[in-house]
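hey
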């Protein structure tokens, strides 16, 4: 009679096998993570290099004019955000050929209202006074301009500023003088009118003569007031012309910068190979937006990486690439 035996694993054996499987799983996961991390670091190294190269390309490609050696950009930084794409932060050069105005913010004086016509022997009221901001409110803001590199232009801007401030001082001084003299005439007139009520006939004639002299002085003051009004108008026109010139130059500058950035993306954007096609390439252009308080908002341009690749492969024009970008200010 044959007999047979069946091996039944003990609980300890089963526990050891389970522990061994768990250790193998942990080791496998660790190795997988290590390889994945090594691969990711390697990809980011390539991406970092591509961003650095693109920084140099953008900096050298963004010229004020086609044959100019002056860049429209003073500095550029870049960073990559996983799942979002590459972001370039650009600081404008604020200079270049026809744009050498630094786009300085010269805070204008309050508009100088024309002086009201003088009433006969009437005192100057508070509403007739010329309102000019204090000197402390006239500000030149050069931002982060390199003073050593642009010393001549800065001196020119400061000279214009000083001329404006001196003109404002002269107007304030003349305004105070006219107001003082008008008050003095009014005081004398009231005094003479009071005396006329109590004076004898001979004295009245003398007092009337004095009133005529006061009228002559009033007419002379009125002429001075008209001249002062002309100075006010001239100063306002100078400020307005300067602001128009600065606004135009600033608009042309950032328009040229935007076009240069888009053209650079079309020519060299395919060099950002490590940026996935489903992500984006964005530009933050500092101070390129609308004026806000004494500064300017930043302009943000967001390009789809697929559109950049299409432009690089001549399937999309630079103009259409810019039109397809999401643009806003912040």
């Amino acid at each position: 009679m044959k007999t047979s035996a069946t091996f039944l694993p003990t609980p300890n054996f089963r526990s050891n096998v389970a522990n061994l499987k768990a250790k193998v799983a942990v080791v496998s996961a660790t190795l997988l993570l290590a390889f994945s991390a090594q691969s990711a670091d390697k990809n980011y190294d390539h991406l970092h290099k591509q961003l650095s190269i693109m920084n140099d390309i953008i900096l050298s490609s963004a010229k004020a004019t086609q044959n100019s050696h002056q860049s429209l950009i003073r500095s550029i930084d870049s960073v990559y955000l996983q799942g979002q794409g590459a972001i370039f932060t650009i600081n404008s050069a604020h200079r270049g050929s026809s744009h050498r105005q630094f786009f300085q913010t010269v805070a204008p004086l309050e508009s100088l209202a024309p002086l009201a016509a003088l009433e006969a022997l009437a005192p100057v009221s508070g509403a007739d006074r010329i309102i000019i901001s204090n000197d402390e409110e006239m500000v030149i803001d050069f931002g982060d301009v390199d003073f050593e590199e642009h010393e001549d232009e800065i001196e020119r801007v400061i000279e214009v500023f000083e001329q404006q401030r001196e003109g404002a001082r002269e107007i304030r001084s003349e305004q105070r003088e006219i107001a003082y003299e008008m008050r003095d005439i009014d005081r004398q007139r009231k005094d003479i009118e009071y005396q006329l009520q109590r004076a004898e006939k001979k004295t009245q004639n003398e007092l009337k003569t004095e009133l005529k002299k006061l009228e002559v002085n009033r007419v002379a003051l009125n002429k001075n007031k008209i001249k002062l009004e002309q100075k006010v108008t001239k100063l306002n026109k100078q400020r307005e012309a300067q602001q128009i010139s600065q606004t135009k130059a600033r608009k042309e500058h950032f328009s040229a910068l935007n076009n240069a950035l888009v053209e650079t993306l079309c020519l060299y954007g395919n060099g950002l190979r490590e940026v996935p096609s489903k992500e984006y390439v964005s530009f933050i252009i500092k101070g390129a937006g609308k004026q806000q308080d004494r500064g300017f908002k930043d302009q943000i341009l967001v390009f789809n990486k697929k559109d950049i690749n299409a432009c690089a492969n001549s399937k999309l024009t630079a103009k259409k690439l810019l039109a397809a970008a999401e643009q806003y200010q912040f």
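Residues 46-99+252-329 form a domain with the GMP Synthetase; Chain A, domain 3 fold (CATH 3.30.300). Confidence is low (pLDDT under 50) at residues 1-7, 95-144.
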